Amino acid sequence: MLADNVPAWAPEGTRQARADLSRLIEPGDLLGSITVSVLGAERTLHLIRSGQKPSASDQQNVGEAAESSGLTPRQRKLSEALARWRTRLAQIGDTQMLRSLGRQGGGLLIPEDAAWPRQLGDLGAAQPIGLWFRLSGSDDHDPYASVSGHLPRSGRSVAVVGSREMTDYGGHVAWETARELAGYSVTVISGGAYGIDAAAHRGTLAGAQRGHRPAIAVLAGGVDRLYPAGNEGLFKDVLRHGIVLSEMAPGSAPTRHRFLQRNRIIAALSAAVVVVEARWRSGALSTAHHAMDIGRPVGAVPGSVLSASSAGCHRLLRHTPAHVVTDAADVMELVAAEGPHIGAQAPEVIESSQRHAPVEDFFSALDGLDEAARRIYDALPVRRVTTPGRLSEIAGLPIPQIFAGLSRLERTRLVRRSQGGWGRAAPSRDIGS
Amino acid sequence: MLADNVPAWAPEGTRQARADLSRLIEPGDLLGSITVSVLGAERTLHLIRSGQKPSASDQQNVGEAAESSGLTPRQRKLSEALARWRTRLAQIGDTQMLRSLGRQGGGLLIPEDAAWPRQLGDLGAAQPIGLWFRLSGSDDHDPYASVSGHLPRSGRSVAVVGSREMTDYGGHVAWETARELAGYSVTVISGGAYGIDAAAHRGTLAGAQRGHRPAIAVLAGGVDRLYPAGNEGLFKDVLRHGIVLSEMAPGSAPTRHRFLQRNRIIAALSAAVVVVEARWRSGALSTAHHAMDIGRPVGAVPGSVLSASSAGCHRLLRHTPAHVVTDAADVMELVAAEGPHIGAQAPEVIESSQRHAPVEDFFSALDGLDEAARRIYDALPVRRVTTPGRLSEIAGLPIPQIFAGLSRLERTRLVRRSQGGWGRAAPSRDIGS
C-alpha cells in the first residue's frame, strides 16, 4: 500500500518553503501551484528569492503543465509570475512563524503530508499550496499529533452555507439541519461568517456527540485572526470542538477575492454543499458553483418566494442541477446518492431514504381499494345508511358487484352495516381537491 | 383544410346520445370511451338500452381497441361493461335536460364538435365522453354561439391548483400569480374548491383585461350544482367572466373518485400545471401526476420547509421533474420552454425569459474587472488612501501592473485619487460570504 511507503509527515524544509510560498502567491494564481508541483516548493522559493531567471527547461516544463491545465499564453509566463511573487518577499523573513503558530495549537498541512485531505486534489491546479490549521492548543500539546482527527473525512462532511443577512427562518433551518447532521456523525463545514454560517456552526456544536469533532470553519484570512471579531465566542467553541482552516498565511487579511477563493476550499472539502439562504447575488452561490464545477452535489433549502433571502436558493434550483433539501435527512440522501464512499458506513442513510415514499403513491389512501370498491365507498352515505339497490344505481355497478365490493370494504373496516343498510364506518374528512 | 369539411356542430342525435352516456358511464371507466369511439355514441347507447347482447364483431372490435389501450383482459369484457352501464338506465329518461340546461346558459360539448378542445385527446382512452359547460346565460342567448371564446386555447392556459387548507402565504401567491397570468392573457384553470383554487380564480378575475375571459372552473360534479356552496359568489363571478366545465352530467354529485378523475381534465386542458401549496398527501398532487403522464410541464411553488402546506410541493420538486416557480414570469417561461404552440404569439414570454440572467453570472459584480484589477481593488483601503508601493506589496503585483490596474479602475470610477494616494471610490458594503 502506498500509505506504508509515504512518511506520515513531509520534511520540515518542504513545509517551511510552502509556508513562505503561501504568503507570496495569492489564491487563484494558478501558475503558482502549477510551478510548485512541477519544480517543487524549495526550487520555486529559491527562484523567487534569488531573483534568478528561470532556466529554459524550467520555463518549458512549467509552461507545458500550465497549458494542459488550460491557462492562457499570458497566464503561462513564468518570468512574469516570478516578478509578481517577488513583490511580497519582505513579508517572509519570519522563520519563527510556524513555531509560534505551533504554540497556539496550529500548523501548516501540505500535500506531501499523509494527513492532507485528498479531496482537495479535485481542484486540480487550484489546489491550495497549503492549509493552515488551528486547534484549541496548549503549550505541551503537539497540534500535528491530533490534527488528523479533526480533518473532514471524505464523504462524511457537508458544507452548510448561506448569506450573512439571514431571516429567523434561515437561522432556524441552518441550526437545526447542522445539529441533525452532527447527530449523523457528519462534520459540518462553514465559513465562520455572521448569519447562516454562524447558525450552522452553532447547530453543529449543539448536536456533537461525545468524541466527535464536528465543526470546521474555513476562513478567508489567517487562522490567527478569527474574522469577523464579533464571532469570537463562536470561534472559541469551534476551536474547542473542531478546527479552523485557511489557505492564507497567518496575519493575512480577508478580502473579497479571498472570500470567493476560500469558497472553493469549502466546496472541495465537502461531500455535498447545502445553501440555506442566499440573496439573488450572494457569495454563498459561488460556493455552490465551485461545488458543481468539481462534481459535488448541491442542495438548496427552499423558502418563501416573497423572501429576498431565499431568492438565491430558488435561482439555484431553477437554473442549476441543485436539489431541494428540506432537512438533514434530505441532505443525507443527497450525500448517499451522489457523494463518494458514504453509503456503506451509514445505516441511518438507508433509513432516511425510505422515509420518503415514491411519488407514485399519491393515491395511497385509496390504494387498498380496487376501482369498484372505491366507487362503492364513494356512493355510500356519510351519516346515513342505504340499500345495495340504491348503491348499484349511484355507483353504476350491478348488484352482485355491489355485494362483493361491500364485503371487501367490510373486511377493511371502511363500511358498517346498520339498521339493515350500509354506511361508511367513519366520516370522510376530505373529498379531494 | 379539414375544418372546412367538418360541420361546426355535431348532429343533435349524437349530442343527446353522449349526454345520456355521460350519465351512465363513470369517469375513468376506460372501456366506456373506447366503446363509444369504436361503435359510435348512438350504437353504444342502443346496446345499453335494448339489453341486447353485443355482436361477436362488436365485441372483437372493442376488445382489440381496449387491448391496444393497455386494458387488462378483465377490463376488456364488453358484456360485463354493458351490465355495469345499465344500472343507471332509470336516470336517463329526461330528454329535456339539454334544452333546460341551454336556458341556464349551458350545454354539452362533444368530440364531434369543431369547438371541442383538442388537448383532451392527449388523454387517449381517458378522454371524457363529453364536456358539460355553463356560462352566464340569459333567455335570449344561445350558449353554443359564445362557448368557443371561453374555452382554453391550446398553449395559452395554465392550471393553478393547490390544497384547500392553505396558509396566508399560499393564498397570496396563488392570487398574485393568477392575477399576473391573466395580465399575460392567459386563461387560468382551477377546480373551484376552497383555499388555493378559490384564491387562483379570484386573482384571475382581478387581473382580467377588457374582453378577455380568463377564468375556467372544472368541477367534479354537475355544472348545475356549483360545489362547494360556500363559493357561490365566486362561481357567479366565474360564470360572468368565464366558464364552468364538468364531464359529469347535471345533477351528479362530486365524490372523491370524481375529484381525482376531474384532475386529469384540468391537466389536459392546461399547457402547464402549477401547484401553489399542497400537503404531503394532497389531491393537487394528482393533478400534477396526470399532467406529467401526458407530458405537460409542472411547476411547484416552494415555501417554508417548516410548513406542512408546502410539503407536497417540495415532494414534487424532490421526486419528480417538476420545476420551481416563484412568480407568473417563471410560469410563462415554463409554458414557453415546454408548452406547445405558445412562443410565437407571446412577446411577453421572451421578455420574461430574459429577466433571469443565467446562473454563470455569480460574479457579475466583479466581471468587469480582470484578476489583477480585482486584487488591486481588494488591496485599496476603504476609508483612507495608500501608495502604489504599498499596494504592490499587499496585492502581490509589481509596480507597473499596479499603475496599469489603477488607471483601469479609475476609468470605471471604482477608485479615487486623493492627497497624493489611492483609495476606493465607494465603501465596500459587502466583502463576500
From TrEMBL, chains A, B:
SUPFAM superfamilies per the UniProt record, alphabetical: MCP/YpsA-like
What GO biological process terms does the UniProt entry carry, in alphabetical order? DNA-mediated transformation
Q: Which residues, if any, are the signal sequence? A: none
Q: Where is this region: Disordered?
A: 50-77
Q: Where is the composition biased (Polar residues)?
A: 52-62
Q: Which InterPro entries match?
A: DprA (IPR003488), DrpA_SLOG (IPR057666)
Report domain Smf/DprA SLOG positions. 142-334
Could you tell me the superkingdom of the organism this chain comes from?
Answer: Bacteria
Membership in a protein family: Belongs to the DprA/Smf family.
Q: What is this protein called?
A: DNA processing protein DprA
Organism whose genome encodes this protein: Nesterenkonia salmonea
